[in-house]
Amino acid sequence: MLENKKALLFALLILQNANFLVAICLVLFGLYALLFKKNLIKMAIGIAIIASGINLFLISAGYRKGGVAPIFTEATIKASEAETRMVLPTPQALTLTNIVISLAVTALMLSLAIRIYQQTGTLDATKLGRLDEL
Amino acid sequence: MSLLQHSVALLIAFPLAFAFLTAITEKLSAKVKNIVVPVGMLSVVCTAFLTSVDVFANGTKVYTMGAELPSITMPAKLAIPIRIVFIVDAFSAFMLLLSSIVATAAFLYSASFIREAQAKYYSLLFLMLAGMFGLACTADLFNLFVFLEVLSISSAALIAFFVDFKASEASYKYLIVSSLASLMVLLAVGILYAQYDMLNIAALAKVLRFSFVDIIALALLVSALAMKAGSVPMHFWVPDAYSRAPAAITATLVVASQSCLYALFRVSFSLFGAFPLIHIIAYAIILLGILSMFIGVTMALPQKDIKRLMAYHAISQTGYMLLGVGIGLLVGNTANIYALKAMEGGIFHIINHALYKGLLFLTAGAIIYSTGKRNLDELSGLARRMPATTIFFITGAAAIAGLPPTNGFASKLLIYESSYIFNPLFSIIAMIVSILTLVSFVKVFCSAFLGPELKALSNVKEVPKPMLFAMGMLSFFIIIFGLFPDIVLNTIVEPAAMALLNQKAYIGALG
Asked: Which residues in A lie closer than 8 A to residue B234 (C-beta atoms)?
């Protein structure tokens, strides 16, 4: 009985923090792609995956149950509900900014990859340059 | 002077505005561009210069976006500053001064160095300046991330400016490292925000509890920013990026790396300064410094490519700054005179390094511009053909090796003296590295400038006047800083060191 309860609590803990666990997994997957993949496009995908993991982390950290946007008219409408709280939308703003920035980074990386492919005919990082240099 | 009041906002607004204006002029006539770029450069540099002079004269400037006073950002019921605050203290002003000097030289140099796609080039250079100025001034952690990204995206585009696959590859490498570093910074910012609901560095420093998660955030911030500053275990992007970028951009990239170094120092002093275990971070920074010094210089010795050689020296010189400021962080109070001296040495070395490294990269660019060659084996006897460049090269080489009449001597002596007190080994390593630096630059001087004239180089000419003027300007500062180190130390370096050490003043600036 006691062990059952422990297992249940553990499952609950995992479920409650599922967002954060997934975010950490995404960051780790992205790092894996950066470290072990030789293809330049896959490396760009790795950076994009890390960015999504961090976006998920920010959004999850900013979530408040029953929160409303800090607009006074909306707050008065819902004032009857006991759980209404006004929440600063800063994490959402951070996430939006990060989405835009990571879009720019990914676009730049892919365009560089295209240029490298046009000039060398390969996307394999191990075959590119630097062999003649220290 | 109402305009001076808003100079901090203009510091960001001018480079951004001119970046996009310049981009538009590409579609218009060349005449418009020839007016917009110099006007933009002049206004950007003047704003930075005036702001820093104002800060050195009148103390820390606090500027709140969209409010008159920073106290307005904290309404009575809300304990969280909700607006973006810029705090420009002496250390920020120091960075502004240094980046505006090097940026002026870079703009002048580019005037004759860059022939194609000028509008794109200058527009990206303005964006880089916006990133550097923003990093130096902001007191908001998220803003720090945004400016880091502005800086790294524009630098990456500029590294790949010359269309060859090596430049593209260097730029790709730089972009991977810097975007990974900025994402880690963002993760740390997210961790801190999730706990304290605020992003302002000064306000955060007041309430930080140094929980386990905070320490993770600190570790992420320190490692990511050290990676972007090009210290040793993560230095591999430096030689590629520095050697493949256009010369004027390389000089600016040196300052960009130092802006990241600035962010590292800002985080470890102003944000986590009261952390009881900060000495661990200090030892880590000192260790990184020593490794960077030694590995940088030993990797530089066998290099044949002139810019690649200088890039490895840039890594090695970053080590000196890390060593000096790390010792300051280790002791952490102004009671110990040697801690302050070490800090001063490290910070003085930041501006000196930007000046002489910038100069050396510009001379390397001049050699490549005139001869079209970058391999030391193919260069010889340039002193006869390019006398002015030779003199500038000697100035820069003497400064990086720490020879007396130059600024490198002043800052290196401070670092030797003060680090000797803490551990004689530190200063012995620093001196050995300095000697190896001299060896390596004597090699460059002998093989490129002395020796018999080669037939292939018989019609080499001196570079155009704007490039000479840019190099002359940096040499002038190097000699002046070397001849009167006291004045520089007292007016700009000591206030900067005190601003870093005095965490309470930074917190108090918010009111």
From this structure: none
